[in-house]
Write a structure and sequence with these properties.
Keywords: Membrane, Transmembrane, Transmembrane helix. This protein is mainly alpha-helical. It has one domain (6-29, 84-431). Helix content is 72%, strand content 0%. The protein contains 15 helices and no strands. The chain has helices at 6-29, 34-49, 58-66, 68-117, 127-152, 176-179, 187-214, 220-248, 261-286, 295-326, 329-341, 343-361, 370-396, 405-427, 439-443. The chain is globular, with a radius of gyration of 25 Å. It starts with 5 loop residues before the first helix and ends in a 17-residue tail after the last helix. Mean pLDDT is 87; it is low at 51-70.
Length: 460
């Protein structure tokens, strides 16, 4: 049995404590009044323009004075908009990190369920690892539920369609485009759907995990029961994942839509989930907690990481290329903002999510070398966090973005929570799914065209 070490447990607690502290500082540092926001904007403007304003001629100054009255109201409107964006930034930082770890945990569960539905043999020795990772789903869902309730109570302004008067034709804030989508974009429906998503995912995960542990006694009826439950999870997941991506991500840009978006979000979380599974497996194997896992299992996980990195790139390019080629203003506005204000992360994530994995994992031999997989995995996780960052931040904070204490703290907190949830769950049960009828196939799984380092090949 694996022991959740005191050092690892302390690391998880320290990460969560630092994350909470940094998040608290981030919220306290956000401007509380419009005047504070104006001061921040003035400093940003001075830093941007430097001392160039001193070179203005007397005539230019006179002309600027003549237009001051006209520009004052515009400046106030801009300052108020920037004020809301600055207040959104701590919320957005937490939301990106929370949704990333929620999505990863959810997609590990989906991949696990798909393995059961496919009656896959190779992955059985990894079942306990995937079950442990999905334990994090319960923990993060609690925070997601709090976020849903807080958002429904208008404690943040992340979703523009939730603003006052957006659906009222008599209001100056009336938005006819959003109003046409009121059958879907309405606060009661959004709140109820979010709670239903979490309830379905957590309920099915809890039941499947419990029955999987019970199956250690070798009961084949439980195996059939787990197959049926996994089918139910895969079917409901495919529906709720797309709806979740519309509600929690695409809803941030309510004028824009893409019929490919649900698949794109799925690819982002799936690559990250496979990477996390590989990294946790490599770590536990190095500690001697997974005696039946060999280099061929690592090789297959790396193949999935490589394959779905290419799949993500295909979806990224397909979505971008079709919108660029059609050149319809209601669609291109999404990418125009990202090119203008987020060019470095928007283009940089392509390097991290495609070029880097391809260079590292294209070679078949490299896929079975743990440190190569870890190196590629780190790049993939950073790249897909940036991908989610670029999906959410432009619509919530606009040009007021950055990577500071709030963003780092969100990652630290949910990383610590992930470590605690995953390894505490793994330590509670037998690391081998003994009752699974495909266990022997998984135990003897072996590629003869790759080098198995540090293994006795006569055992295969």
């Amino acid at each position: 049995m694996y022991q959740f070490s005191g050092k690892l447990k302390m690391l998880a607690i320290i990460l969560m404590a630092l994350g909470l502290l940094g998040t608290g500082i981030s919220f306290m540092s956000a401007p509380k009044t419009l005047e504070e926001a104006k001061e921040i904007l003035a400093k940003q403007n001075d830093a941007h323009h430097g001392g160039h304003g001193e070179a203005a001629s007397h005539g230019e100054a006179k002309e600027a004075h003549a237009t001051a009255a006209h520009g004052e109201s515009h400046d106030d409107a801009h300052a108020e908009h920037a004020f809301h964006q600055m207040q959104n930034r701590p919320w957005s930082a937490v939301f990106v990190a929370m949704l990333f770890f929620l999505g990863v945990s959810l997609l590990v569960m989906a991949f696990y369920a798909a393995q059961r539905v496919a009656q896959s043999g190779w992955s059985v020795v990894l079942f306990r690892v995937m079950e442990a990772i999905t334990n994090n789903l319960h923990f993060v869902s609690i925070f997601m539920l709090v976020f849903i309730i807080a958002t429904a109570m208008h404690m943040n302004h992340l979703f523009p369609w939730m603003g006052e008067g957006v659906f009222d034709p008599k209001s100056p804030n009336y938005d006819p485009i959003v109003d046409a989508k009121a059958w879907w974009m309405n606060l009661p429906g959004w709140t109820i759907r979010g709670i239903v998503y979490l309830a379905i995912w957590n309920g099915l995960r809890f039941i499947i995990r419990r029955k999987s542990i019970e199956q250690d006694n070798g009961d084949l009826k439980l195996h059939k029961n787990l197959y049926n439950l996994s089918v139910a999870f895969v079917v409901t997941f495919m529906v709720t994942e797309s709806m979740m991506s519309w509600d929690w991500i695409m809803g941030i840009d309510p004028h824009w839509f893409s019929t490919l978006f649900g698949w794109y979000v799925l690819a982002t979380f799936l690559v990250s989930a496979l990477t996390i599974t590989a990294l946790v497996t490599i770590y536990l194997r190095s500690k001697g907690a997974l005696p039946l896992v060999n280099d061929s299992h690592i090789h297959d996980l790396a193949k999935f990481m490589f394959g779905f990195s290419v799949f993500w790139t295909y979806l990224w390019f397909a979505q971008f290329m079709l919108i660029w080629y059609a050149d319809m203003p209601e669609e291109t506005t999404y990418f125009v903002q990202r090119f203008n204000e987020y060019k470095l992360p928007f283009l940089g994530m392509v390097v991290l999510n495609f070029i880097f994995p391809v260079l590292l994992l294209l070679n078949s031999d490299f896929k079975s070398i743990p440190w190569f997989v870890v190196l590629g995995g780190i790049a993939i996780l950073i790249g897909h966090y940036v991908d989610l960052f670029v999906m959410i931040m432009p619509g919530t904070v606009g040009g007021q973005w950055g990577f500071g204490i709030g963003e780092l703290s969100g990652i630290l907190f949910f990383a610590g929570l992930f470590i605690y949830a995953t390894f505490s769950a793994f330590a509670r049960v037998n690391p081998v799914a003994k009752g699974n009828p495909f266990l022997h196939e998984s135990e003897t799984f072996h590629y003869y065209n790759i080098q198995h380092r540090g293994e006795d090949n006569s055992h295969h």
